[in-house]
Design goal:
By secondary structure, this protein is mostly helical. It is built from 19 helices and two strands.
Length: about 450
Amino acid sequence: TGVSADALKLLFGLSCGYPLALLWRPLPSPAARHCFSFTTGLLLMWCVYGGHLIHSLVTATATFCVLRWASPKLALPVCWVGNVGYLLIAYYHTALAEGYSINWTTAQCVLTLRLIGFTFDVVDGRTGKQGVDGAALPTLPPFLHYMGFIYHFGGLFVGPQYSYRKYEGFVEETLFPSPRPSSKAAAFRCFVEGVLCLLLVQFTTPYIDVDSVIDPLQTQTRPWWLNVLLITIAYRLILFRYFGVWKLGEGANILTGLGFNGFEAGVARWDSMTNIRIRRVVLQTRMQDLVLHFNVNTNEWTKHYAYKRLRFLNNKSLSQLGALLFLACWHGLRVGYFLCFLMEYCDLQIEAVLFRWSHRYTSAWYQPNALLYQRTLGYLYSFLLWIVATAMVSYGVLPFVQLSWHKTIAGWAALGFWNHWLLVGVCVGRVCELVTCYFRRCTHSKTAEKTA
């Protein structure tokens, strides 16, 4: 089949979420639901990762004990450093083979964010802060409730992230109205979308493989534009792996009711556990769209528990860079992760500058009263932006997939390092802009002095 045994185990664990969701719904009490979450989560972890489930038990129990007996001032750094350090040590000992492999650290990295977020919520509650959307916890929940939150099958393997407050409302059935609106159709749609995304990857991989398209023996015989086209398509298709597993996980959460997100025009919304908005990502015209619509809940977690917690730096760019550095470490110790997130940061800066430069020329093309030729230019410009954004994403995803330095450089060399040259050009343009502004200010001040 071309699918590894570890990948099949992971898909088995995700697929088990659907029958477990059906068993969850008739449970009679919150205590039964907490117990069901804990026991089924442990069983799934054992089925997928075997004895390695001990790692999740150790870190979850240790975090609870620290929060139970340590002061908030001490608990936060101990839990943060302890969980991140445990994950990094795990990466060091498991990353022996070249390339990415699915193992117990896949679930552990998801758990690490959940434990850190829970720690922040408890510390915020104890220090009188409201936390993220009222997620602060003034008291530590009972151990069984906590372990039910940690091991709930809806977010066990690939996420998404959610707060204990949300889980508590879900278990106590205060998250949605009574009678609860039906979610079966929405869950089935997510399941079908997930399966189709995974089938797309499975059927296209033999024809356009991520390793073969950057093979120097092939790239040297192809024209540059063909290298760009093939590499962009190959690394764009890689994203559909994530689309597939996230959609499978989302469907199970919708079926249990955890995905309920209120009503819109009288119709129930089931998108609070959405981790990917496929159409928005596929049709993106800006890199910012990727941040908003890809790995949604993890990005929200990073925004609230990493980016905003770095406000003491008093610099948005530094806070953004710090948050991306944390994400790179969270993914692993391979150089490819750091190159990927560094490229994301650079691309976001490039986009911001280019958008500011072009906005005064292009804004009229998108006005309601725009003329026909202006609307046509707007469509053509949007199409150009889509091409550039798609190519930029594949350029940045390349090191994330290849992981090693030499494979990344080989891939970027086949692309002519075009994204890096674009970065250099924007930097030169920005320096020229600053120099021009400086001389204009000097000229203006001399003119003002002569006038006076």
